[in-house]
Amino acid sequence: MGDEFACLAYYEEPELMHDIMQTIADTCFRIYERVSEKVPVNILSVHEDLAGKSGSLIGPNIISEFIQPYYRKIWDLLQERGTTLFQQDSDGNIESVIPAFIDAGINTFYPMEPAAGMDMVQVRQQYGTDLKFYGGIDKFVLRQSKADIRRELEYKMQESMRTGGVVFGLDHRIPNGTPLENYRYYVKTAREILGLNPDPTPSWGRMAF
Q: Domain residue spans in the chain?
């Protein structure tokens, strides 16, 4: 359908959108019902990408009517069976719809994209430790100076963010043009701030702490 037609369809063809969501939810429910009987599911993750720099493509009212019931169908099942994390993966600025997603069961957000205006420190101050994050560190800072890298890390890894519920990491993959020296400085500095061994051997490109 594409983003534009999908957004319009919530108003022009609501029955179709409910049917799409119901079909997806029913399929996921049948799968997770069987899987969770055999193995523990630690985290439920939904990839939406429903926002840009100017904000969410849909408002809280659309989320409450067209998304929340179907999220809840899956989440309620898994939560009863011990799942504790329900992650929403969306780029862009989702600040205006965070409360609606919390009502839908979401308790973890990724990647908290700084380039879109997301600041996980401010969001943590607003919602407390019940809301969890993964990512949040501006990937583009790796192409700037070492002073900029340290400033970003000291801000994002401040003491109030080290009380649990945060997996620090870049908000996306390492951007093209990043000097290797800067990446090594980023890893070493981050580990120093966290009180870890400052000289590990990185084993993967999306280093998290």
A: 2-110, 138-209
